[in-house]
Write a structure and sequence with these properties.
binds guanosine-5'-triphosphate; seven-stranded parallel beta sheet; about 350 residues; binds magnesium ion
């Protein structure tokens, strides 16, 4: 009871989030992170209120990923400066923002250097790493929906070049990979097909000179330039976050990709697909592939939810309940309680 009373009113919260109230945003993101049952139900109602707006074709969800220390946060800060000057409101979700390698360079520190502290048009939320499996990106999708409802541009920063980070970045309209000059990893990964081709590739730290130049031409050499995604030609760019060079071109490339998606139509369906992927991931974490099979398999599941306009939490809950029922009905009678 007490817990229920401390939960914010879903309708009021949704309105406040859409109008960009910072305290409401913080409360909403906390609500999505709350694992208590009543909070989950409440979050489902809240999400369904903002869903219609967020899942449509408004806003731009951009994923920034790349190896630790490549300058993702610095570039994010520089981009924010650019977008704020254009009058755009920007939200950032920084997943596991402080890698051990760069010594915990928090996005907040980078931002403080670039934007005034009292700027209302920027909102940053850091999501701590919650462990090796599952937890890390669990709520990034629902949180992205909240941010999409409130901001013109939502940026998701993830560290690393592994599958987990790519999974997060894949749930974005546009994926941007930041490469570190002189590091062969990115090139090897791209060559071997381990790294899914991003929509925009940028070699940061061009102020390092020749080594950055070399990485740039190596990357341009190995990259299959046409993206499977609508025939988009992947730009390989050069920038320096600290000097502020190449930022406009980078912002321009991100925007052009967004424009292409808009022109092709289907951004809403695309976001529904991300939601489908999120659901599959969550179901797989809880029930394994067995659970997915019991629900008819991936394809059937994705098709079934494609036409729905429900919030991710509501969909997840109804699928979980169905699965529990299925499992109950096939349980040997002697094992059924009562
Ligand atoms: N020379 C140079 N250094 C840069 C540039 N951009 C960032 N750095 C430095 O690179 C280091 C890492 O920058 P971050 O922006 O924290 O990189 P990151 O990719 O967000 O790092 P993690 O989130 O910890 O993985 C810092 O010491 C930055 O000052 C650049 O354009 N040129
Ligand atoms: Mg960072």
């Amino acid at each position: 009871m007490n817990a229920a009373r401390s939960l914010p009113d879903a309708d009021g919260l949704a309105l406040a989030v859409v109008s960009g109230e910072r305290s409401a945003l913080a409360r909403a993101l906390n609500l999505l992170d709350d694992r208590r049952n009543d909070a989950r139900r409440h979050a489902a109602t809240f999400l369904s209120r903002i869903q219609a707006r967020a899942a449509q074709d408004g806003g731009h969800l951009i994923g920034i990923t790349g190896p630790p220390g490549a300058g993702k946060s610095s570039l994010t800060a520089a981009l924010i400066g650019h977008w704020r000057r254009a009058g755009l409101r920007v939200g950032v979700l920084a997943v596991d923002p402080s890698s051990p390698i760069s010594g915990g360079a928090l996005l907040g520190d980078r931002l403080r250097m670039k934007t005034p502290a009292d700027d209302d048009g920027v909102f940053v939320r850091s999501l701590a790493c919650r462990g090796e499996f599952g937890g890390l990106s669990a709520e990034v999708w629902p949180m992205s929906l909240v941010m999409l409802a409130a901001f013109d541009i939502t940026l998701v920063e993830t560290v690393g070049v592994g599958q987990r980070e790519i999974d997060v970045a894949r749930m974005c309209d546009t994926t941007c990979f930041v490469a570190q000059p002189g590091s062969g990893d990115t090139i090897q990964f791209l060559k071997a097909g381990i790294l899914e081709v991003p929509h925009v590739l940028v070699v940061n730290k061009e102020d390092m000179g020749a080594v950055a130049q070399r990485t740039l031409s190596d990357l341009a050499g190995v990259l299959k330039r046409r993206h499977d995604d609508g025939g988009w030609e992947v730009p390989v760019l050069s920038a320096s976050a600290t000097r502020g060079t190449g930022i406009e071109t980078l912002a321009g490339a991100l925007e052009r990709h967004r424009d292409l998606l808009g022109a092709m139509g289907g951004l809403a369906q695309r976001r529904q697909r991300y939601q489908g992927q999120w659901l599959l991931k969550r179901l797989r974490e809880e029930f394994g592939s067995f659970g997915i099979r019991r629900l008819g398999g991936e394809q059937v599941l994705l098709e079934r939810i494609a036409g729905e306009e429900s919030s991710p939490f509501a969909q997840l809950e109804s699928l979980r309940q169905r699965l529990f029922q299925e499992l109950d009905s096939t349980r040997p009678t002697e094992m059924t309680p009562d």
